[in-house]
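Hey, weird one. I pasted the Methyltransferase domain-containing protein sequence into the form twice and got a warning about non-standard characters only the second time. First submission, copied straight from the form history:
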Amino acid sequence: MDQLNAFLGKFIDDLGASVHAGMVVIGEKLGLYKALAGAPATSAELAKKTGTDERYLREWLASQAAGGYITYDASTQQFSLTPEQAFTLATEDSPAYLPGAFELALGSLAAVPRIAESFRTGAGMGWGEHVEGVFHGCEKFFRPGYAANLVSSWIPALQGVQAKLEQGARVADVGCGTGSSTILMAKAFPKSEFFGFDYHDKSVEAAREKAQKEGLSDRVHFEVAKAKEFPGKDYDFVAVFDCLHDMGDPVGAAKHVRQSLAPGGTWMIVEPFANDELKDNLNPVGRVYYSFSTLLCTPCSRSQEVGMCLGAQAGEARIRDVVTNAGFTHFRRATETPFNIVYEART
């Protein structure tokens, strides 16, 4: 009975977390966290401040307090955010901003009926076939990690790349999505020219809008193109962020990257953190990535030619095989975070 009760406790935690995801998305969408970060408030005060219905808001606040996402003072009946809660829930440029992960989760779960049928048929599901929340949530999910690490530690960990970017280089961001990674690099290295490619047309449209808004359209260009077909030659630096494992033919994509590089050019591959053995990935981070991989990454790869289905927990050995089979002679793990591994490849 003790073991059963312990498992049931885990179930309650997970069930609460599942429905709580929707609460976080509502909180971000309506600006509730940002409003609460300013000062403690009762449900009535916060409702007036945010233009929301007090009764709905009261229920939402209770769910957040029960989950530990906001703080409740019973003596004043006020709700508030601690500094760490505000940092992760109300500060969009924070490196630990969380709401995007929940938007991505909710969007991914919308595909469950179709993915369940794919277990029987083996059919794929292309990235562009998911609901809008997947695209918006994915960008919000990955952007904080890129903002915290890309310029400050990932690029400096690569041999000679930072100096080239500072002097002025041609850069391709393959699988750029809505362009966050491309724009982060462009803002950090104003002498370089950047080309972002993605096979999802709506993501490319959003990326172009961002570049224009940031005043970068003169040297940041976005185009719809597959990873095996993106145009251009003599790139000094090619980057692939969290998408090599989504590709149907990652070896073919890697060969195209190698052919597109200038002599002495570098390919940076950012992948989800994973060990080579399944037993070593059976942890909370692995749980997140294997679940997203089941709903997003594996179906995406299966929908394309070859359909290698590396999965989001491919591990270094499999990524090395992909890269070396494409003709790269130099491959190493340059650096890592708890959520990503950064690899360097050169010919």
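That's the output from the first submission. The warning seems to come from a hidden character in my clipboard, not from the data itself. The chain has two domains: 1-88, 98-346.
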